[in-house]
Each structure stands twice: as structure tokens, then as C-alpha cells.
Amino acid sequence: MASSQPPPRPISSTLLLALVPIASWFIVRPFLDPIPSLPALYTSIGFSIFTFMATLYLVPALGPTFVKAHLSGRDLLKVYATQIPESLGLVCASVYILALILFIPFAFSDSLTIRSTRTPEGIFVSEFPHSRLSVYLSSLLSLLIATILGFLDDVFDIRWRHKLPIPIIASIPLLMVYYAERGNTHIVVPLPLRFLLGSLLNLGPLYYLYMSLLSTFATNSINILAGINGSEVSQALIIAISVILNDLLYLPWPIGFHLPVHLLGSNAEVEFGGVWSAGMAYGSKELVERHLFSLYFMLPLVAVCSGFMYHNWYPARVFPGDTLCYVTGMAFAVVGIQAHFSKTLLLFFLPQIFNFVLSCPQLFGLVPCPRHRVPRFDADTNLLHPSKAIFMKPPSKLAATVLRILSIFKLVVLTVHPSGVILETTNLTILNFFLVRLGPMNEKRLVQVLMCCQIGGSVLAFSVRYGLAGLVYDGDRR
Amino acid sequence: MASSQPPPRPISSTLLLALVPIASWFIVRPFLDPIPSLPALYTSIGFSIFTFMATLYLVPALGPTFVKAHLSGRDLLKVYATQIPESLGLVCASVYILALILFIPFAFSDSLTIRSTRTPEGIFVSEFPHSRLSVYLSSLLSLLIATILGFLDDVFDIRWRHKLPIPIIASIPLLMVYYAERGNTHIVVPLPLRFLLGSLLNLGPLYYLYMSLLSTFATNSINILAGINGSEVSQALIIAISVILNDLLYLPWPIGFHLPVHLLGSNAEVEFGGVWSAGMAYGSKELVERHLFSLYFMLPLVAVCSGFMYHNWYPARVFPGDTLCYVTGMAFAVVGIQAHFSKTLLLFFLPQIFNFVLSCPQLFGLVPCPRHRVPRFDADTNLLHPSKAIFMKPPSKLAATVLRILSIFKLVVLTVHPSGVILETTNLTILNFFLVRLGPMNEKRLVQVLMCCQIGGSVLAFSVRYGLAGLVYDGDRR
Questions:
Q1: What are the TM regions of this chain, as residue ranges (chains A, B) (predicted)?
Q2: Which of A154, A318, B454, B460 is 20 to 30 A removed from A306 (C-alpha atoms)?
């Protein structure tokens, strides 16, 4: 069953070359007549394809450089002990951010925005969008800081408790510019609470706290659902695709379409579309712009994640390091905050929320937390088994109660001494939970289960967002 | 003469504590009546004092962490071989950029700009300065990228030829936002050339090339004038102070003053001042704002450099690494470009220009270039001597001619075989030039000579800028 370490994954240069003209066409398209209604979106797609190619090519090319700089480690769940390059998320982050920077003139310069006023069907501004540029730049700053801090974490191996506030530092530029730009701190109150709070509530400073906590959650929740090949990048990929699907609903589409929301329990019959009607934005320029902003950040992220996943897929040839988790998490926080759909965004994090809640007893010291909580690898069968945390002294009453409740719901398996004292518990992560419920499986199958769970979570998220949300919110979605 | 490695330099906690109320007063001052005419400048000074304290404290505190992460090296010009923490410029850059980010709401929010309209003497905008915020943010992006790339250079030890374009990448956000904001690409033509080119010349794309070359020069010219304790940071400190002095000339001062420019060869008698007259800006709101922008970036830079210099001074307890050179160089390029005084800025780089021109034969392969060109250390006398480059094969005719000319001007000392073939030359750097002209000296004296040279250069720069420039430019200084 044992396998030796495989060589770097091959890249088809034919495929790469074939993508060049396609990507170039998308970038050039906005300058050709007839000018499309959303010109910068074409450029963004073109840039994303180039980003995909750059990641696909650079990650294996730079691997040896990382090994030389002591940035490597062995794969704990394999039989071979070869050093695998670590922290390659830095390459992803650099390519991603560089693409976003080069995109600035296309998204904000006159040449495109002024030209676009010629198409009366689209929804556009003719004056220079200074305010949106500031927001875009502050988002880039936050992504860059997340990258630096993630890489510092990889180099200096910062302790868990010290790295919790890192995303808060990275979110400072977002908050500063949000404040300087007099950002909205009102939230729409759910229908059942309106008799108490009115329909709009000004959270004031609490809104800033909420934003920095969102960054912290988005970043750390991906970082703690890690440890097996492809787990970090596949989460990021699926969340990014979900955000894109949600954004697409708000764009002005040239075709009419109909969303069967009544099947999902909504009272309203929602039909929208028709030539250049504005999707679910119902003609709101503001909403279209917000979701375009989100697309500009998510399209290249999907490209980078796909390119990286090719090399990080089981058996992994490279590791992402903390850098990838930080930068992807911050990217989600950025679009959630700046495009004002943080509640919808959180719905796409259902598996992460489950994993975080399940982890709490270990994260907050109720149950012993070993350095690594990844599943245990059985070299003979090549299967993963749930890993265990051992109680060196009997657990407190509270810990024992919590563990017994988790055990009843089959979230953990306990080893109990005949006297009734808990001796061991499986570690409190979603990966160990899968292994507890579905039995031992190999690493590739486990990451596939995780991905299915993430996709299932997104399907559920869409049902809740466009079905159930109608019960507690009206159309007023500021 | 030999000395053992000294312990970390002590920090007076009394001094640090005494600075807290002073810094706090400067930050709070803009909110107290009577509101000062330049409120954000007070905040900037307050932030700078905190920045100084943070650098002074954090650099030695984080030193051991850097050593643990393999970021250390021995001091080549000392008798001891202890590992000294390297790349501490990263700490400086982080503190510096964090201070600039936290400063955003003070520089741009309503609370200060709207309040300030109450003082009719000052020169202020009441509408929100979106465009200036974008420029500020793009500058921060460039500084952050310079930091990342500088640190990557330290970690991966990038080869000389590969790292030349690094500042160009870092300047991309500057250029992108300059373009998106429809930045001015006109230059004022010197008087003698106006009959040919008119008084204003649009450089178009060449202006962008000029800006990225300026970043490249400012960054690399500090990086190649390095190698002895305190050399990098002292250059940055003196240039930053020179820029600040120049900026102060353009602020509205409450007192009148008189600059004896006629002594410097200018025809015009320049007298300015009086209560709230606008210094050399002659009431131009635009000019005052540009130089305020420059001050916001330079004041904390001086603070960071002073704090770092305390620990980097001979005998150095920490090394700056490439990160410090990159971030300071980029900071100068940023203010030169955004505040439109790049020609004046270049005048403050006279020693760096001299060093660069002198280095050219080695940089471009005419003369052999050893890995390190730092002066040679004589452990017995504790003195530095000029280091030498050895010709493994006889130099080309061109190289020999160049070296003989340099030798005539006593810029180098050659070792010549009786047959007339050049065997050795002292390395072509300003440090070796000092040693050739002034004789062997110890490291501390050499860095003092370098600093005197830098100060002398700045004095000359001011004379040229406010004296001779009157001969080739009129008052039209766009």
C-alpha cells in the first residue's frame, strides 16, 4: 500500500498556450464595438484566466526555492518523509494581488467608464468613482496585510493565541476607510423585532466590531479546518464559487429567467429578467455595483485556487501554509463587508461554523488540545482514523457533560474507564467527525467528503437566503 | 583592540514613559479649542512620537525571534562571530505602515476637515477629499509591496540582477492610481529650452516610465550604499529630515521670515511670511496640501529611523536587511511623485548618485564585482581599509581607460604590474573612496564621514534648489 513520493505534477503547455488567446480576447473585448454593457467584467475574466495560468506555472517552479529557504515540511499522513515545499500560498497571494492591482485602470479609469455611457441599456456612472476606488484600494491593503502576516506566521511560527488577533490588524485599513468615507453603520432589523427596534438600527461602533470579527472568523475558520491535502484550498474554492453564483443573480442579464423561490417557501413569486433588466437588483445601480465589486475579487480568487489545487491535490506536491488561509479568508471578509452581504456570506461558511462550534471545547481549554488534531494515519492500510485527545487527569464535570452530549449526537467517540471516567475523546473537528460517522477512509476520499459537505452547505445557504429569509426580512435589503 | 559583542543596548523606560503624555497631547490637540490651522499635522507628530517609541522598544524585543527563524548573520567587520539579528527593517516597516494606516481617519475624516473650516485663516477643503484618499492609499500599497518584496529578498536571498525590477513592481499601485485619477503628465520646461518645446511639455507614457525609474533609483541607491553599521538608516534619516525641512517652507507660518536667496545667486528677492501667509506656497492650497502629504509620510519615517538607528549604531546590535532600504526608498519615491517635487528629491540623493555613477563600471560588468564590496577590516588595528577587486585576466581597454581616469581624480587606487597591466583596483563605492582619500579609519568614523557627506549634499541641494534653479525656471512650478 505504501507509495513513494510522486514527481511534480505535469502541466500541459498546450493547454496553457491555448488559454492565452482566450484570456487576451476577454481583456481586449471592452475596447471593441459593440461595447459590452459591463466592460470591466470581461477584463476581469481575462485577468482571471491569466492568473490561473500564472499560478499553475509558478507554484511548482518556485517550490525548490521555498525548500532552500527552510520553508518545507514532511507530509504527516504519508509513508514517505520527503520535504514538501510549504507556504506556497504566498505565490498564490502575490499573483492574486498583482492581478487585482493591474486591474485598477480597467475598473476605474475614464477610458472605460466614459465609453460605457454610450450604451444606454447598462447602469453606469459617468463621473469618476473616487469613493469606489478608495474602497477598492483599502481592500487591497487588507489583503496585502493578511498576506504579510500569514507569511510571517509561516516563517516565525506564531503561537495560536498570538495569531488570533492577526486578522483584526489586517482589517484596520478596511475599517479606517469605511470610517473616513462615512460608511453606513445601519442594519435592517428582522420583521419580528421591528416593533421593538424600528426597521433600521444604527449599530455605530458595534458595526466596526462586527466587521473586524467577521474578518477574524472568515480567516481563522478556514485555518482551523486544515491538515489534509487540499482541504484549505477546496473550502476557499467552493465558497468563492458560491459567492460568484450569488453575485450573478444581481447582474443585468440579457435573457429573462425565473427563480422558483415559491418552492423554497417564499410567499412572493419572483420573476425577473428581460433584455437588460437588472436581475435581482431590480434596477438598483448601487446593488449592481456592489456585486460587480465582489466579482472583481472573487473571479481571480477562483482562478488562483483552481491553479493551486491542481498541485495541492492528494498526494500533495506543495502545501499552502497559513498564507493561503489568511488571504482567502480576508478576501471573503472584504467582499462581505464592502458589498454588504455579510449575512449571506456567513451562510456559505456553514461547515466552518459547525467545525468552529465543535472545536470550542478544545480551543478554549475545556478539553486537552494536542498540537495537531489531524486524523491519524495508518500506514498499513493507507486509511485515516479519528485522532484522539487523551485526558492526563480526569475531565472536569463541565467537560465530561459536554463530551457526553456530543457523544449522544455521535459527534465524538469516547473511551471510558469501567469506573465511568472519560479517558480519551476523538478530537473535536469536522474531519474526525466524518471519520467517526462514515468509518475510516483514505485521505483523498476524506477531502472529497469535505467538499461535498461544503457544496451541500452552499445549496442549503441559497435555500435559506432566497427562501426562508423572506419570512423575516422584506425587500428592504440595505 | 579586539572587543567582545556588547549586550542589547539599554532603553530608558523613564524616557519612554515621559514621551507618552507629549505624544498624546499632540494627538488630542486638534480636538481642543482653539482648533489649530493644520490639525492633522499635530496628530501626525503625535503618531510619530509613538512610532519612535514602538520602534525603540520592539526592535530589540523581537531580535531573538528573528535569530530563531534563521534571520541572522555575523558582522563581517568585527572580531566576534556572534549571530546578529538581521532583517529588523521588517519591524520598522510594519510599525511605520501601521502608523500611516491608523492615521487615515485623522487625515481624511469629516470630524477634522469639517471642524477645520471654522478657522478662516487656514487653507482647507470642506468637501471630502476622495481623490487625496485614493492617492494616500495607493502610496500605502506601494510601501507594503516594497516591504513584502524586501522581506522576501531577505528570506530567499534574491540575486542582484533579479531584484533590480522589484521596485518597479512596488510602484505599480502608484502608477495605476495616478493613471486612473488622470494624473498630470506635464512637466515645466527649463527657460533655455522653451523656444524649442514651449513652457509645458506632456511626457505622456514617458512620465510613467520616469516615475517607475525614480522608485527603482531611490530604492536601489540606498541598498547599494550599505555594508557598515548604521549606513543605510543614517542615509534614510538625513534624506527624510531634508525633505521635511523643504516641506516646512511651504506651510502657512504664523511668523514672517526672510530667506536670503540673493546670497545664493538668485535674482529675485524672496520675502514671505506674515500672519498665516502661506510660506513659499504663496497661498496655493494645492502646494500646501502636497507638502502636508509629504510631511505625513516623512515625520513617522524620521521617527522609525531614529528609533532603529539607536540599535543599529556602531557596534550594531541588529541589522536592517534589505527591507529597510526598500521601504525607505519607496517612501521617498512616493512623496517625490505624489507631492510633485521629484527633481528636488533627487538633489537630496547627491551622495547616492555619486555612489551609483562610481559603481557603474562594476554594476555593469566592466570591472569584476565581488559579492561584497564593503571595506576590508583589519582586526589588529580595528581600522577599515579600502577593499579591492582583483582582475583574474587583464582588463579590457575600455575598463583600463575608465579606471585610469578615476585614478587621476583619486577616486580609486590601482595596483599596476611593472608591465603596465592593472592587477587590482579598490572597489568602486563611496565608502572605499572615503578611505582612499582620508586614509584608514574605524567603522564608526566612516559612518560619521558618510553622514557629514549626506548633510553637505543636502545643504548643496537647498542652495541649488532655491538659488541656481531661479536661473533656469521661473515661478511656474507645477
A1: 12-32, 44-67, 88-108, 133-152, 293-311, 323-341, 347-367, 422-439, 446-468
A2: A154
